[in-house]
Please model this.
Amino acid sequence: MLNDEVNSSVLETLRKQRLFRYDCNSPEESEVSIFEKKFATYVGTQYAVAMNSCSSALFVALLCAGIKPGDKVAVPAFTFIAVPSSIVHAGALPVLVEVTEDYVMDLNDFETKVADGNVKALMLSYMRGRVPNLEKVIEICNKYNVIFLEDAAHSLGVLYSQTQTGTFGLAGAFSTQSYKMIDGGEGGVLVTNDKNIAFKAMLYAGCYEHNWEKHFGTKEDAAKLKDMTNSIPAYNFRMSNLTASVLNPQLKKIEGRVEFLNNNYATLVDILLKCKNIRIPAFEENVRPAADSIQWEFINLSEHQINQIIAGLATHGIEINVFNGSNARSFWNWMFFEQNEKCPFTKELIQKTVDYRLRGNLSFGDIELIGNTILNEICNVL
Ligand SMILES: Cc1ncc(COP(=O)(O)O)c(C=O)c1O
Model:
């Protein structure tokens, strides 16, 4: 994915010897501020605050939303360990919510779990780019006074009714870690349309003294920012100019990359659905996916047969995993908070669900070969 344009952008940053985002006089001279501006434009929000990871952005989003130690925060049980971790980091308690067989948060279970009025916020994880009915999510949040926050780590490029996911709630967080749509090695971005949230996020992320002058969109609020500075701890989660210079040239490639990945995804789905032991839920019509991975459920196969298929595919260099064993997405492995909700449906579903990354360099021929090899390995164990 990285190319000559990225090389020259990084070399230019090195040549200038300005690796720190605030080592400049104005936002126009900061690679990170430029990235924030372009990122906000791409996703369609007023503000973006770049950080060192999505996990930092999730943590900061919770603090900005006023989550306090002891508060409860709902989160779908099908997500990555970093998401409940960010909730625990804020001193809050994750409340796990079941997902449906479409891998999206189960809205009935969500409503049941927030109905007592004790859940302060929802951290909706668009795990593997899957999106529930957002009108319904917002309706339930409004009904029970639940603050809506979004973990869009995996959903840069995923649109819901033509709007970027991660922009529906009070704040959203994206990841630019290597396995995501744009690759900065590490990195994250908090987005919001709320000025107060954006300013607080800047300060939590480590904007100290007068450095807010080096962010876009702050000029008219100098007095406000002067007042806010030092009233919020600076956790120093800043992104460096080096990371931003890797990311900046990739932003304009997202749409092309999404189209390429979605074509590969559609081809692979067509091949795999020839097998009656594979179930792949379709995306809703109003969801434009950005399919950088594929998930399917193995049906009518034993655990032993599934393990045989996984082992067989590994001999062909095709590494697939189910959400089992020590997988960091298997919620029953998370021992760092008390799990009062068992989410049996999600456990049963994801243990038989395959996770396979669709790399950006796979050709049509590669996809055909991978699909047919998977079908052959399934036939071998039947
Ligand atoms: C669903 C999900 N949310 C959040 C994160 C955290 O992202 P980061 O690694 O940038 O902290 C990840 C990381 O892979 C993830 O998969």
